Amino acid sequence: MENSQYLKEVRDQYENYPYPRREPEEEKTRILRPFLDSLDLLNYYCFAGKRDFSKDFRVLVAGGGTGDATIYLAEQLRATKAEIVQIDMSAASSKIAEKRAEIRGLKNITFIHDSLLELPKLDIGKFDYINCSGVLHHLKSPEEGLMALKSKLAEDGAIGIMVYGKYGRTPIYFMQELMRMVNKGEEKLQQKVDNAKSVLQHLHPTNWTKRDEGIFKEELAQSGDIGIYDLFLHTQDRAYSVPECYEWVEGAGLKLLTFIDESGIEKLVYSPASYIQDRELLGKILAMPVRAQEAIAELANGRLTRHCLYAAKTARKIPNLADPANVPFFSSFLYSDGMYEEIRKLLEDEKRGSININKWHLSRQITVKKYSRLIFKYLDGERTIREIIAGVKSEIPDADEREIKAEFEEIYNAFNLFDWMLLRHESCPNIAKSDRDLQKIFVDREAV
After folding, report:
1. Domain 326-440: which CATH number of 3.90.70, 3.90.930, 3.30.450, 3.40.1350
2. Which of 26, 162, 201, 390 has the fewest CB atoms in 10 Å of its CB?
3. What phi and psi, each to the nearest 5 degrees, are found at residue 111?
4. Which parts of the chain register pLDDT below 50?
């Protein structure tokens, strides 16, 4: 294979420092949720809300490492006929992923020990969804890597990708350059790590990395030496701006469907309206193509350390409120067991003028209006828009249907801004579960 020495260096890194750092026994107490792989989000953005995951569904996790995406997808799809395949060139990383799957009793995963660059040669069929998070930017040719993934993508399938953000990681690249100079001629991996630790402890307050250490401090606290090597000593590390993401994805003959953010705030993060206050200037910017708006937002933000996105062979539409057969539901970003009932109980207080929803550092205030209580009475994650409107009308026969729809749309849009409420077609079962609820199902199953 071309550039075998590069592959050896990367393989050696992940054999010595499996990434990300994971302890298999922790599967008994928690499940990690890579947000790109939440099936409700995937269905909404990539399959027009019409994908029934309870039927045959094939998943490839390319460069799966220690197994976060693999385990989360397999757990969500446990009770289905779905098949999950993980490929990774690190035996040490794969061993950890396999142990995690064993502890969970997951039987729907196949592990392949190989480079994702070998995918075109492997007789493993096509996949409906391919996850490749934090991998392609470590290849000598990310273009070759993306084409390898495309070779295994079904015509109507989708790919979830995470690559590093060019501008947000500037302090990290500052440190990487410093460590290349400090470690010149050093062959021992652990000594390189020790040297990095020493340098990090004594960085001058004016140093760019020191001033912006908040973007990686938590990662180092959790991952230790593994995190240090991956952040500051990686042998191959490339980052992308928004325009470069589009150019790269489209260069592979794919469509960039949308950027995604862990907190569900991509609509804010990638919008110039979040940064530009001058109305006249903002109006000019909003008249630009979407990708130009997103590029401006990235630079205005300055702290996007990664770009997460969905891509496919063809453009896709997301489900919308105009289709009465769509079902509105609280997404796995926000959902927890009993949530619908909890909101309805809050609304029993007729003096309540609003509902406050808080998640992470985000909040939404929903003003209680004329039909709000009845809308939430019928909003249960199972009823269609048609059924919700009909439910309200059944209790107030002379109600103006347009007013009901307008009020419902206002409620939906308030939640949808953060991806807290999504739509799926009525033909698809509700699969939205929080990581806490998903873990509870696993624990309860093990207790039987």
Report:
1. 3.90.930
2. 201
3. -105, 130
4. 1-3, 5
